Structures are given as C-alpha cells and as structure tokens.
Automatic annotation (TrEMBL):
The lineage of its organism: Bacteria, Bacillati, Bacillota, Clostridia, Eubacteriales. It is found in: Cell membrane. It is a multi-pass membrane protein. GO terms for cellular component: plasma membrane. Keywords: ATP-binding, Membrane, Nucleotide-binding, Transmembrane, Transmembrane helix. It holds the Pfam family ABC_tran. PROSITE patterns: ABC_TM1F, ABC_TRANSPORTER_1, ABC_TRANSPORTER_2. Residues 27-310 form the ABC transmembrane type-1 domain. InterPro entries: AAA+_ATPase, ABC1_TM_dom, ABC1_TM_sf, ABC_transporter-like_ATP-bd, ABC_transporter-like_CS, P-loop_NTPase, Type_1_exporter. GO terms for molecular function: ABC-type oligopeptide transporter activity; ATP binding; ATP hydrolysis activity. This is ABC transporter ATP-binding protein.
C-alpha cells in the first residue's frame, strides 16, 4: 500500500517540539548566526574604504580606525562562532537523545501486537536508523539553513543598495533560475529518496534476518540462498543511489552555471564603466565580494536543500511511527485497587487480525490463590489467554475482570507488576546471568538471587560455569541449553514473587526429575497466590486441582484430573492421542 506523503513543514515543526527544553540555546544560536553574518557583510566595506581612501586617495588618517574596526569585527566573528557552535552542540545532541527516548517510550506504548506484526529488522531500520536523519537535521541542516539564508540575503541587500538596475536584475534573475531548477528537481529527488529509503530499510531487515537465522541457515546449509537475497538488495540499493547522485550533480552544475553568469555580467559592467561612472575600485572589490558571497551561499543552500530532502524523507519514518495510535490504551481514570488475584472471564472472544476467532465465549472464574492448568491442542488459544491477561491485546468480545474490576481500569504498571510471566520462549539478554536475573527485580540482593536460582534448580549449573553469575550470555542465551534457559526464566519469576503466576510450557525442556523439583518449589512459594499454567505434560497436569480444557477456542471441560480422565471426555481423548503426554 502506498504511503501518504508527509508534509515537510509539519515534519520540521515536529522535530522542533523535541527542542522545547533547549529553546534558549536554539534562539541564542539563531541570534549569534545573524550577528556573525552581519559582521561578514561589514568586512568588504572596510576593504572598500581602505582601497578608495587609503590606497588611492592617500588619506592615512583613517588607517588606525579601519584597522581597529577590522580587528573588532574579526574578534566578534571568532567569539560568536565559538558561542553558536557550543549552543548548536547542546541542542543537537540533547534534542536527538530526547527523540531516541521518545521512540523507545512509543515502542512500549504500542506494545506486543505491533511487534508481532512488524519484523524486528524493519522496526530497527524505521526508527533507530532513520532517527539519525533527525540528528542530521538538528546538527547540520536546520542551523546551516539559517546561516546560509543570512549569508545569501544580507549580501543581496547590499547589491540592491548599489542601485545599478542592470547589475541587480542580472543577479536576481540568476538567483531565480537557481531557485526554479531546485524546485522543479525537488519532486524527482523526493520520489527517488523515498525509493532509496524503502530499499535501505528492506536491506537492513534482510541483514537482521540473516544474523538472527544463522543457526537455521547452517542447519539447512542455505547460506548461499540468504546471502543472495542480501547481495541482491545491496546491488539494487547502490544502483538507485548512483542514479540519484547523477541527478543531484546535474542540479549543482546548473547552479554553478548561473553563478558564472552573474559574476561574468558583473565584470562586463565593471569594464564598460571603467571610467568611474559605475563603481570605484573599492566598490568593484566590495561588490565582487558580495556577489561571490551571495551566489556561493545560494549554491551551498541548494546543495543543502538537496541533501536535506533525503534526510527529511528518512525522518518521515520515525515521524509516522510516533503518530501511530496504540491499539491497547491505558484508562484515563484508573483504579487504585490492590490486586489480590481473583480472575474472571466473561464471554471473552478474540481473533488476531485477518484471522478467524481463536477464543469464543470463554467464561470462567479463577479464585484468588487457586492453581489452574489450561490444556488443549495447538492453536486453541491457551497462550492467547495469558496475553490477554497481560493486555498484550484487548478482547474483541466480552471482558476480563480482576477482583471484580475490568483489567482495562488498572494502570499498566499496577497490572503488570502483579503478574509474573514465563513464556515458552523467554528472552534472555546478551548480559551476565546476574543482570538477566535483575531484570525481574533490579534491587534484589545476592541472597535473593541465590535463593531464586536454587528453587529453579539452576544454581548447580551456574556454579559450574567459569565466571558463575558473571558469565556473559550470547544472543538470546544461545550458549545455554534449552533446559538451562527455562530454569533461568523460572528463577526470574520466583525472584519477582508476583501475586499472579502466568506460566506457559515452562517444563517442556526439563527432564522428569528436575521438572518435579521445580514444580514442587513453585507450588510452595506460590501458596496463597494465583497460578495459571499452560502445559501438555501429564506429570505436571496431575499436580493441579483444577484443569480447564480448551477445544476450538472454547472451554469444553472444567474439573480435576480424576473427574476428567474418563473415556469419552475431550481430556481423555487428548491424552490418548498423545496431545497431552510426558514421561509417564
């Protein structure tokens, strides 16, 4: 689907909103730039006076004054340059950090559903890579546009004050031609930059996928296939960039051509009026400097606008990203009720985007402190129930209550702080084991770490590692076995000690002996707290006093093991078919 074109004026204003805290530095920068360019305009006039009055008229009485004024002007330029450089550095660096933090916060607000639909590589390219374009707008284009506009406008005013109609007309016509060429070409450049940006994002996505899939690529021996895709996109990207570079170079050639015409016309007029009716020698030098300054600033401004067009095009991605409305929103009038753990599902229905309903009319109540296991075949919505409790998504139909209050009325922080979640595929950071545990409880002390790890039956394998708790983990904990990763994830939830435990196939990679120890420990530490677990292991299911059986998105059976394990029940059939099994 074709993306809607973003208004670049609105994009500029949006970029400036992140500089509100640094308004003083922005204003100071622009004032100092105006002072600097005004000082540059005064220098040719000083040179004119020196030539006309001192060198030609031999009037040496003003030499000291001219030298003093010139030194003062140069000193002001040096000081002002230093100051506006510092101001620019402050608002550029700090403003970019503000927008980077804003992107991270926005990603949190958009939540789980956005990232399930958006490839990780695509997200990284759209946000972090393209956020650099906003940095370049702050650091280079916004300040330099202001500076070059002053550098172009002030000499042009001096040229207009010369009152020579032919000279003024020639310079203005050349400037208008440069502006016309730039405007006409900008649309073509914009279209090509859009194409380059999208191909760049696709390339980054493929590179990310290439890195993330290294294990599977080796397993299938398909390195040449995935490399071919990356190289193909890179070749396409380079081809588009070369074509765009050619267009930009042609525009700059036009600018240089009109610059040559303006300066050439100036010299022709000067030669035709060499008798002094047009300019004095000092005026010739001064106005030559003004023409050069004005046209040179316009040339640089044109080049800047061409490059700025590319950066604005790239900056559209974070701009668009920041204007996405989250599908799951926090209540404006949240409750302050303390969560105890009673969970109620009332006629809950849910379907993922463009898919059939995965949950249908789910109705049940789980008392605070109750231990319940959910079973069923694949695709019946077991994990989805846990995600709905966390408000990764909102129900499409019905509602979920906690302690008699809709989960939509709780603050995100209060709701999620009450839950402890272990997904089947839990994420481990490329940090030490200690840092991965602190993720669950940042202020935990060493004794708490050790206790949680021992209860998760992970202490022994950690102690056997060379660096123990300071062992660095690879990407997603790849240097650990599946069972070790699961036990670290279990240690996290034990360390957090939540009011409600949400556990998804947490023993699938554990042997039966370790599984029994872990489950016994979990039941002990969660006494009086609610536990909702998804499992297909018969040895685990038997330990729960209540079993919910899902089939085709509905709760079809609800009871304990003895009441459900009878011929003719759905639960019994699942066991006999091997959907529910284990080591027994």
């Amino acid at each position: 689907m074709e993306e809607e074109k973003v208004n670049h004026f609105k994009l500029y204003l949006w970029c400036f909103t992140f500089l509100k805290k640094y308004t003083f530095f922005v204003i100071a920068y622009f004032v100092l730039v105006a002072i600097q360019e005004t000082c540059f305009i005064l220098l040719p006039k000083q040179i004119q006076k020196f030539i006309d009055v001192v060198a030609i008229s031999k009037d040496f009485s003003i030499v000291a004054k001219l030298v003093t004024y010139t030194i003062l002007i140069v000193a002001v330029i040096i000081i002002v340059r230093l100051l506006h450089g510092l101001c620019g550095m402050v608002f550029c660096e700090k403003g970019t950090k503000v927008i980077q933090y804003a992107v991270i916060d926005k990603a949190r607000d958009l939540g789980y559903d956005y990232f399930e639909k958006t490839p990780r590589g695509d997200f990284l390219a759209k946000t972090y890579q393209n956020v650099l374009s906003v940095y370049f707008l702050y650091y280079d284009f916004i300040p330099n546009t202001m500076r070059l506009l002053c550098a172009f406008t002030l000499p042009l005013i001096m040229i207009i004050l010369s009152k020579n109609i032919y000279f003024i007309a020639t310079v203005l016509i050349c400037c208008l031609c440069v502006a016309a060429v730039t405007l006409v070409s900008s649309r073509r450049i914009y279209a090509r930059n859009m194409e380059i940006r999208d191909i760049t994002n696709l390339h980054y996505k493929k590179v990310y996928d290439c890195i993330e899939s290294v294990r599977d690529v080796r397993g299938y021996n398909s390195g040449s296939w995935i490399s071919k895709g990356v190289v193909s996109e890179l070749g396409n990207l380079n081809s588009k960039k070369l074509r765009n570079l050619g267009l930009e170079q042609r525009i700059l050639n036009y600018v240089n051509f009109f610059q040559a015409i303006a300066i050439g016309t100036y010299f022709i007029l000067g030669i035709n009026n060499a008798d002094g009716n047009f300019f004095s020698v000092g005026n010739i030098v001064a106005y030559y400097a003004y023409v050069s300054m004005s046209i040179n600033a316009l040339s640089k401004l044109t080049n800047l606008l061409i490059n700025q067009n590319k950066n604005l095009t790239d900056a559209e991605k974070p701009y668009t990203f920041m204007h996405i409305e989250p599908t799951v929103k926090e209540s404006k009038n949240p409750t302050n009720n303390r969560i105890r753990g009673n969970i109620t599902f009332k006629n809950v229905g849910f379907n993922y985007e463009n898919q059939d309903s995965i949950l249908k009319n789910v109705t049940t109540n789980i008392a605070a402190g109750e231990k319940v296991v959910i079973v069923g075949g694949s695709g019946n919505g077991k994990t989805t129930i846990l995600k709905l409790l966390l408000r990764c998504y909102d129900c499409c139909e019905g509602e979920i209550l906690i302690d008699g209050i809709s989960i939509k009325d709780y603050r995100f922080n209060d709701l999620r702080s009450s839950f402890g979640i272990v997904f089947q595929e839990m994420f481990l950071f490329s940090e030490t084991i200690r840092e991965n545990l602190k993720f669950a409880k940042p202020d935990a002390v060493e004794e708490e770490f050790t206790k949680a790890v021992k209860l998760a039956e992970a202490h022994e394998f950690i102690e056997n590692m060379k660096d123990g708790y300071d062992t660095m983990l690879g990407s997603r904990g790849e240097n650990l076995s599946g069972g070790q990763r699961q036990r670290l994830s279990i240690a996290r939830v034990i360390l957090k000690a939540p009011q409600i435990y949400l556990l998804d196939e947490i023993t699938s990679d554990l042997d039966s002996i370790t599984e029994a120890k872990v489950m016994n420990n979990l039941f002990d530490i969660s006494d009086g707290k609610t536990m909702l677990m998804v499992s297909h292991r018969l040895s685990v299911i038997k330990q729960f006093s209540r079993i919910l059986v899902l089939n085709e998105g509905r709760i079809v059976e609800d009871g304990n093991f003895n009441s459900l394990f009878k011929e003719g029940t759905c639960f019994y059939n699942l066991v006999k078919k091997g959907v529910i099994g284990g080591d027994e």
